[in-house]
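Quick check before the chapter quiz. The format below is the same one you will see on the exam, so make sure you can read both the input and the output lines.
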Amino acid sequence: MNLIDEEITHKVFGEGNIVDHDDSIITVDFNKDIKKFVYPDAFKKFITLNDRNTAKHLKQVLLKRKMEEEALERKREEEKEQQALEQQRKEKLKNHKIHESSQIVFWLDEEEQQNVFTDWHVFTGRVQSGKNKGQPNRVTRLRPNSASLLTAREADQPEIERRILGLFMVNETFSGNHSDDGIVPSHTEYRIELTEGEAEKMLFWNYYINKNHPHRTTWNSGKYRYFDNVWIAQILKDIIALKTDEEQIKDANKFLEYFCQMNALDFNNIPEANGALKQ
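Here is the expected output.
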């Protein structure tokens, strides 16, 4: 808003003309006595524009700026609150001896996609090099609090099209440290299979993010990746919102409640997903 040459009245210095202004300072000439004031703060207390139309327009500008500042402050407060909650979560995980990324996500091939929801277990693949070459991969982070996320994409699809097909809690007696056969068995109760239409709406990269490269959506090789505990909760929350069958919604809610209990998460305070596709 251009205020140069506008006539004003100051409570102390009287009548004057604005001779210059920018985003933070206005300069006023009070009959050759030049003074500078903070903009727009000075208009809130000390200075009044003489022209009513200009004053009305300035009032709208100041109101808009105030609303923007308040929105920015609310965002800052929300970020501070979220950071505090995240710190509390990490402390809980530490106290419960839970790794903050003790979940696992698998890239399923075509054969596995056909069998996984019948067998309800996943093979971790084999070591590709070194002294243990050919032996099953040992997923050492997995514990009874862990979930296995099942994903896939077609060979001709870009990586951003990776879909979530389903997920399950690992068997309550399973420990990755003591598993030699590379088989990750499921819990007998906490299992979810998505329909093809549901899977199309549940894109993996809405949740997963490389914190060092937040816009990167690459998975060039490897059978699996470890996965942040909160991301699984976000996925379960969105699955509940996606489902329409009342019985399936009930089962997914029970799954989420159990998962939060096992991972020291607040069921009622799960943050919104913020994966690479949302950056």
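If your answer matched, good. The chain has two domains: 1-95, 100-278.
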